[in-house]
């Protein structure tokens, strides 16, 4: 809706009203159109101000309407009507003007922005382009290079940057609506022809063609084509081009995946557990002071992330040398982050200690000590004795049993996993692992803290590897099997990188260090040296590949030791090693194509995802997709593994898994899991219906 009032005698004030972000829904568009007509028809009104309620101008189009039949008046003619008005129209931008919101503001004759507002055209991040005149007006207003940059990256700019670029006419520290009303009074009666952005000439820029060529290589082609239309065609024809390009994008799989993922990130915030705890019935407790125990790789990053979120942090490390190094490293990270943001590092929010006692008054503790159950058990017993009885005790373990750690404490309902990803200060993902006894308040508190730290928190049940690493294990395993059968690390990585992963599985393993997994497999009794014959490739009755273990026995730990799956200097060692290994085990190498690499690695991971859903480790497919895109480099434009399965078709995923299982009966995980089979049998419902389909005893399957 949009409310119309008259203020200061002669200013028509139109206020967008559609919480939370005043999105341009059908009702809002209708309301604005009617209010503009009223203002123009009102003899007393000399100028108009458009603003949004609750200190926020407009977050953009209502994405929920995408893909549905259009209802209500379209946005483009409404913006045209505003621009064509014979009375000055001023946009009062507070909070944010994004996407359609900025396009609406660009249709106004003047733009006044509050100093804290942010402006941008983020459509490209949803696989779309700004198609309410954004690609046509912005280049005319601020020139092609700057417009191209904003449109093709989707980056937001601050009010100060917007002023410098020429997007807004004035920035104020005061109430932007009041300032805009005064401004509107001051421009009453002034000519408007050079204030209508669509009638401006696109400012000339040198060497436009090479700019477009370069941008085409780097960025989304459709946005570039649309902006090129602004630079070369009259406005009306540019608008036609924009519309046609948008129509082709709307139907693309990439746009559907990006829009799905946009909502998936929000869906994970509405968490629930099989025990009945829910986001809307559980109250988080305030966390002001947090303690971090163990200042290695992870502890340092977690300390930085907590401090940046405005918490007081007590950082504890028992090794004197590590403590000194950590202190320096944390200060360096905070300084670099501050430089990037153009601020000064906040002093005094971190205190360091070599005594656990220092954590005594913390509201919440996150331990990041060695991945060793005995070390962690002892620590949890100590923490339980030292800390406040109501303190939340969290572990950053990547694989150990959270319930077992909880059982070491006096208050197991206050124990949780907070599984960060390296580098913890930068990665957006946080798995909040609840145990069998974790209280709803504890889960809500950790979920909220993750959000405060700028992370997407996903609630995950306690099982080996939680959700992310449990699926990763199957994916890695298939990659090893493919090498045994004739593939090369380069070939497997190429297939995955062409699919969209930033790094293939072997390059990623080299980067994170092969010894980490080796240590875990040794502790589990899986990695055993000296085995020969058929037993070398079987564990617990299933196919097992010792390739990763053998590499470590050759001191190849990845990038840290200069060599892993790749040599960081030319050396044919690995290929010779694989040939000898295959010969030793009587494995006949065959040619493996990219399709098999993708299907084996990705479908087995997806199959484990369905098993995780069936085991109720997460509440819905969005949780898994958020984890994989934000924590494991799954390409965002493919929506996440579960969305990808939905796009490929569940029947095909199940058929291909079945096919590979028949070829490799000794790999049980290749067999389509029960849930996947039941979903296929029930006609492969679309992804948004899976949650309902899974829901326990009421399952419709
Ligand atoms: P790290 O070896 O770099 O650091 C561990 C630190 O804990 C060392 O500085 C050590 O001196 C200290 N420490 C050990 N016992 C202690 C005690 N009782 N009190 C205080 N400090 C103690 O290990 P990293 O890589 O930081 O891993 C820590 C935890 O985070 C592990 O549980 C690991 O599984 C988990 N994790 C690691 C990830 C990674 O990529 N490195 C990713 C996600 C989780």
Which helices and strands, and how do they pair?
Elements: E1 2-7, E2 11-16, H1 26-41, E3 47-52, H2 75-84, E4 89-93, E5 96-98, H3 100-107, E6 110-114, E7 118-120, H4 134-142, H5 144-153, E8 156-158, H6 159-165, E9 170-172, H7 176-186, H8 208-218, H9 221-232, H10 235-250, H11 253-267, E10 289-293, H12 297-308, E11 312-316, H13 320-341, E12 350-353, E13 364-367, H14 373-386, E14 392-395, H15 402-406, E15 415-420, E16 429-434, H16 440-452, E17 456-461, H17 468-485, H18 489-499, H19 505-512, H20 514-523, E18 538-539, E19 542-543, H21 547-553, H22 573-584, H23 594-614, H24 621-631, H25 641-648, H26 650-663, H27 674-681, H28 690-694
Parallel strand pairs: 2-3, 3-4, 4-6, 5-7, 6-9, 10-11, 10-13, 11-12, 13-14, 14-15, 16-17
Antiparallel strand pairs: 1-2, 7-8, 15-16, 18-19
The structure holds 1,4-dihydronicotinamide adenine dinucleotide (NAI).
Question: Which descriptors would you attach to this protein?
Answer:
single chain; 701 residues; alpha/beta; 2-enoyl-CoA Hydratase, Chain A, domain 1; Rossmann fold; N-(1-d-carboxylethyl)-l-norvaline Dehydrogenase, domain 2; 4 domains; eight-stranded mixed beta sheet; six-stranded mixed beta sheet; disordered C terminus; binds 1,4-dihydronicotinamide adenine dinucleotide; 3HC_DH_C; EC 4.2.1.17; multifunctional enzyme
């Amino acid at each position: 809706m949009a409310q119309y009032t008259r203020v200061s005698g002669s200013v028509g004030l139109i206020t967008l009203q559609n919480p939370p972000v005043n999105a341009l829904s059908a009702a809002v568009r209708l309301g604005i159109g009617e209010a503009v007509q009223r203002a123009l028809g009102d003899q007393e009104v000399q100028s108009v101000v458009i603003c949004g309620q609750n200190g926020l101008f407009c977050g953009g189009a209502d994405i929920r309407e995408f893909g549905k039949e259009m209802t209500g008046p379209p946005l483009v003619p409404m913006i045209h009507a505003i621009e064509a008005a014979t009375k000055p129209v001023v946009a009062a931008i507070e909070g944010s003007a994004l996407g359609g919101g900025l396009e609406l503001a660009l249709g106004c004759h003047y733009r006044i922005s509050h100093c804290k507002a942010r402006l941008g055209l983020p459509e490209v991040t949803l696989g779309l382009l700004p198609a309410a005149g954004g690609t046509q007006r912005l280049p005319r207003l601020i020139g092609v290079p700057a417009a191209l940059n904003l449109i093709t990256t989707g980056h937001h700019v601050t009010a100060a940057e917007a002023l410098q670029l020429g997007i807004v006419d004035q920035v104020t520290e005061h109430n932007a609506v009041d300032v805009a009303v005064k401004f509107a009074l001051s421009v009453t009666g002034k000519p408007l022809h050079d204030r209508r952005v669509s009638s401006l000439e696109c400012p000339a820029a040198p060497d436009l063609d090479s700019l477009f060529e370069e941008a085409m290589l780097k960025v989304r082609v459709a946005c570039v084509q649309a902006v090129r239309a602004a630079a070369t065609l009259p406005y009306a024809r540019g608008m036609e081009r924009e519309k046609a390009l948008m129509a082709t994008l709307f139907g693309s799989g990439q746009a559907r995946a990006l829009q799905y993922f946009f909502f998936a990130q929000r869906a994970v915030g509405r968490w629930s557990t099989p025990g009945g705890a829910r986001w809307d019935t559980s109250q988080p407790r305030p966390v002001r002071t947090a303690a971090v125990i163990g200042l290695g790789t992870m502890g340092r990053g977690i300390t930085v992330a907590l401090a940046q979120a405005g918490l007081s942090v007590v950082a504890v490390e028992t090794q004197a040398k590590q403590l000194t190094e950590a202190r320096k490293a944390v200060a360096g990270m905070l300084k670099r982050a501050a430089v990037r943001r153009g601020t000064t590092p906040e002093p005094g929010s971190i205190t360091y200690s070599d005594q656990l006692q220092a954590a005594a008054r913390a509201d919440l503790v996150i331990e990041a000590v060695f991945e060793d159950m005995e070390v962690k058990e002892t620590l949890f017993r100590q923490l339980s004795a030292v800390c406040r009885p109501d303190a939340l005790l969290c572990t950053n373990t990547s694989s150990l049993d959270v319930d077992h750690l909880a059982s070491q404490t006096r208050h197991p309902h206050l124990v949780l996993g907070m599984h960060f990803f390296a580098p913890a200060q930068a990665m957006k993902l946080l798995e909040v692992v609840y145990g069998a006894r974790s209280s709803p308040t504890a889960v809500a508190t950790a979920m909220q803290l993750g959000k405060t730290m700028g992370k997407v928190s996903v609630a995950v049940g306690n099982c080996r590897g939680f959700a992310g690493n449990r699926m990763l294990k199957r994916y890695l395993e298939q990659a090893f099997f493919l090498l045994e059968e004739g593939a090369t690390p380069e070939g497997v990585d190429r297939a995955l990188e062409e699919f969209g992963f930033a790094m293939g599985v072997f390059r990623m393993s080299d980067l994170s260090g092969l010894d980490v997994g080796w240590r875990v497999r040794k502790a589990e009794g899986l990695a055993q040296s000296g085995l020969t014959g058929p037993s070398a490739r079987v564990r617990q009755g299933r196919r097992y590949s010792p390739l990763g273990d053998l590499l470590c026995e050759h001191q190849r730990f990845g990038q840290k030791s200069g060599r892993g799956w790749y040599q960081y200097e030319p050396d044919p060692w690995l290929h010779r090693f694989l040939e000898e290994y295959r010969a030793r085990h009587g494995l006949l190498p065959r040619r493996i194509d990219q399709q098999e690499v993708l299907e084996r690695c990705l479908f087995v991971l997806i199959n484990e995802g369905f098993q995780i859903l069936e085991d109720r480790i997460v509440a819905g497919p969005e949780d898994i997709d958020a984890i994989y895109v934000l924590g494991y480099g799954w390409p965002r434009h493919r929506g996440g593994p579960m969305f990808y399965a939905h796009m490929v078709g569940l029947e095909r995923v199940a058929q291909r898994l079945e096919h590979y299982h028949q070829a490799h009966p000794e790999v049980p995980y290749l067999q389509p899991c029960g849930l996947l089979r039941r979903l296929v049998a029930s006609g492969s419902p679309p992804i948004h219906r899976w949650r309902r389909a899974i829901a326990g005893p009421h399952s419709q399957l």
